[in-house]
Amino acid sequence: MTTEMRSLVVKTVVPSNFKYVARDLDGSVHVFEKEPNLDYGTGKNPYPCDMWDVYEGQTMRVSSKTVVSAAHLTEELGDWRHSCAEITELVGVDDEN
Q1: 80 with 36: CB under 8 angstroms?
Q2: β-sheet bridge partners, residue 85
Q3: What is this structure's pTM?
Q4: Is 58 in contact with 33 (CB distance < 8 Å)?
């Protein structure tokens, strides 16, 4: 059975301590304080990679996984292994703190 899906673009904001955004193999999108990496079977993570790895700093999920693995959505979303991007746009300052 084929799963029919629709494309959706969502714009949001995250605290400025998060500097990177990336999509995992399951389609979920996360933001990171420190640049994540794909730790393919090194001593820190000896298992095959299906998600971005970080060893310090906070992370936050900004979207849930997709119904279909992102590995099957390369035409629509691009290769998840190349999804890591730096967040450079500062949109505002919270003056209430």
Answers
A1: no
A2: 21
A3: 0.81
A4: yes
